[in-house]
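Hey,
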Amino acid sequence: MDNWITRSCDTFLDRIGRRLAGKLNRPSSGYMPFTPSDFDTLCRVLRPGDVVLIEGRERVSNAIKYLTQSTWSHAAMYVGDALPAPDDATEPHRLIEVNLGEGCVSAPLGKYASYNTRICRPVGLTAKECQQIIGFMKDRIGLRYDLRDIFDLLRYFFPTPPVPVRWRRRMLAIGSGDPTRAICSSLIAQAFQSVRYPILPETRIPETGRAVDTEQSELLHIRHHSLFVPRDFDLSPYFQVIKPYLVEAFDPHLLQWDELAPST
């Protein structure tokens, strides 16, 4: 009898979770990419192990952007040709990401062709370490997002919570006891931590005996993978920001200007 009640409760919560996830994944009205990268150039510039940050257009993206005080609401890892080629003629999957309601999945790069993106590249990794990071992500494809954890979903329905900025990052971790239930950047952070590659600078607490202040305490908490957010790869001093147009011998003298446009 108890097992039947438990299964019924899980089924009920899962149905509610699917409905909530569906609402959160709906596109927001009025989204317009400001300066999306040229897709062909983006494809040529990316290297396996790069972190691709995305300015999402879904309702959940608005909440993440507010809570993290950042343009970037999503992160995916570019893995090159590490995944099997599709049987049909569709675009190969070269990204691995964690999506709300889905879990860890692969995706084609063309999925984000019309989005604002940023490339964050780790520096100094050996070929073996890069393969270990990609292998870490590949091994986790198929891990599902637990839709029964309603707290993980409800937190995104309050995009402007009346809490201090220093606590907003913690709101992203409410209910997330498992990295597959956290936002996308958590699993990517784990992958880099698996080869001891830093994301944010280590914090050293002076041995003075005094209490740790609020800022130092927050930085110490960020060491845990569940509290990493997409913008941390952008802000990290250990990831190089790659701008596709500048990589391929950009020459400002070749630009075609509209001579009739008013000067500013």
